[in-house]
Write a structure and sequence with these properties.
Blueprint (H helix, E strand, L loop, with lengths): L1 H11 L5 E7 L2 E7 L6 H11 L6 E7 L19 E9 L6 H14 L4 E5 L7 H5 L17 E3 L2 E5 L14 H13 L6 E7 L6 H9 L4 E6 L3 H16 L4 E12 L6 E2 L6 H9 L3 E7 L1 H8 L4 H4 L4 H16 L3
Parallel strand pairs: 2-3, 4-8, 4-9, 5-7, 5-8, 9-10, 10-12
Antiparallel strand pairs: 1-2, 6-7, 10-11
Helix pairs in contact: 1-2, 1-7, 3-11, 7-8
Bound molecules: adenosine-5'-diphosphate and magnesium ion (MG).
């Protein structure tokens, strides 16, 4: 129901003005920010939401002074020599398996014969070095002017985590983080790359907006668990990328279901097919589902992602099927 109401709200207000949508006992509470109170639009929206089955009352709460990043007009693009296509892997919130998905999809794209790069832009929780099993500062080129990407199996990789101390909490201002990302992206000798996968920070803040505007993103994949709350965040993500004209390649449902290794019984721990339904509602493609599985987690934590460690496993096949869809959508 919250998804449905959120959709209605987006017809009246831009995603950045929607703080939250909650329903308690039939009472829908819509929190808006940076919009004038008693707006006629809000009244039209309230009437429409009141018509949703199960809604008894609608409250609109206004909050002020939430900084909204201004959309820049045609900002100067960052140039990445030799990189043909760039895709982002995004999620509405953290912990849904964005990095696990990014790393395994990058390896699956490489298995399809594409020269692949993986860039970790998650300034809040960079995890690609751990997942790929590399450490330390990036190598410097012979002339000392640029970075060499880490070479892991068959992908070129670079992480913002290599420049920051991961044991320290990161309190960067947006501009400083963007400057570091720009430097790392544009001053790395990527070589000839067919597709670069970017593990984006979770959510829909300044960094995501800057990456979407400064890079020519050929598409973005949204990772979500089947839970309602994660899906609402996923919808926000979809709307943000639509707003900056980045094509949505589709939604991946992660931790979709669990199969007991002992008895083979399947359990839908977080519900099931929620992402598939949301994708349909939003008019974006559903790319596939990845189960919750111990070996996916263990391999990610050990620096041996499952696509590499267990090439014949059904999970690897699931990632490869998604990678094949992405490859064809990118025209590669
Ligand atoms: N399909 C999955 N099955 C089992 N564990 C998973 C799966 N996807 C992610 N995980 C685990 O969940 C945790 C969070 O995943 P991660 O990719 O780091 O999320 P995010 O990048 O969205 O914060 C990690 O410990 C990871 O190993
Ligand atoms: Mg992550």
């Amino acid at each position: 129901m919250e998804n449905l109401i959120y959709e209605i709200v987006t017809k009246y207000f831009a995603a950045e003005n929607i703080e939250s949508v909650k329903v308690f006992n039939g009472r829908a509470i819509i929190t808006l920010c940076n919009v004038p109170e008693d707006d006629a639009k809000a009244n039209g929206m309230k009437a429409e939401i009141a018509g949703v089955e199960g809604v008894k009352k609608v409250n609109v709460v206004y909050t002020a002074e939430k900084k909204v990043a201004p959309l820049q007009e045609g900002p100067e693009k960052w140039q990445l020599a030799g990189v043909k296509k760039i895709i982002g892997v995004a999620s509405g919130k953290g912990g849904v398996g964005k990095s696990t998905t990014a790393v395994n999809l990058a390896l699956a794209l490489a298995n399809l014969g594409l020269k692949t790069a993986l860039f970790d832009a998650d300034i809040y929780g960079p995890s690609i070095p751990t997942m790929l099993g590399y450490e330390g500062v990036p190598p410097i080129s012979f002339d000392g002017q640029s970075f060499q990407p880490f070479d892991y199996i068959n992908i070129a990789s670079m992480s913002i985590g290599s420049l920051i101390d991961r044991s320290q909490p990161l309190i960067w201002r947006g501009s400083k983080a963007c400057g570091a990302l720009e430097q790392l992206l544009t001053e790395t000798n990527w070589g000839e790359i067919d597709v670069m996968v970017i593990d984006m920070p979770p959510g829909t803040g300044d960094i995501q907006l800057t990456l979407s505007q400064r890079l020519t993103l050929d598409g973005v994949i949204i990772v979500s668990t089947p839970q309602d709350i994660a899906l609402i965040d996923a919808v926000k993500g979809v709307n943000m990328f639509k707003r900056v004209d980045v094509p949505i390649l589709g939604i991946v449902e992660n931790m979709s279901y669990y199969v007991c290794e002992k008895c083979g019984t399947r359990a839908d721990i977080f519900g099931h097919a929620g992402a598939q339904e949301t994708a349909k509602d939003l008019g974006v493609d559903f790319l596939g589902e990845i189960p919750l599985h111990l070996s996916i987690r263990q391999n990610a934590d050990n620096g041996t992602p499952i696509v590499m460690a267990e090439p014949e496993s059904p999970h690897t096949k699931a990632y490869e099927a998604i990678a094949a869809k992405i490859k064809s959508k990118l025209g590669l």
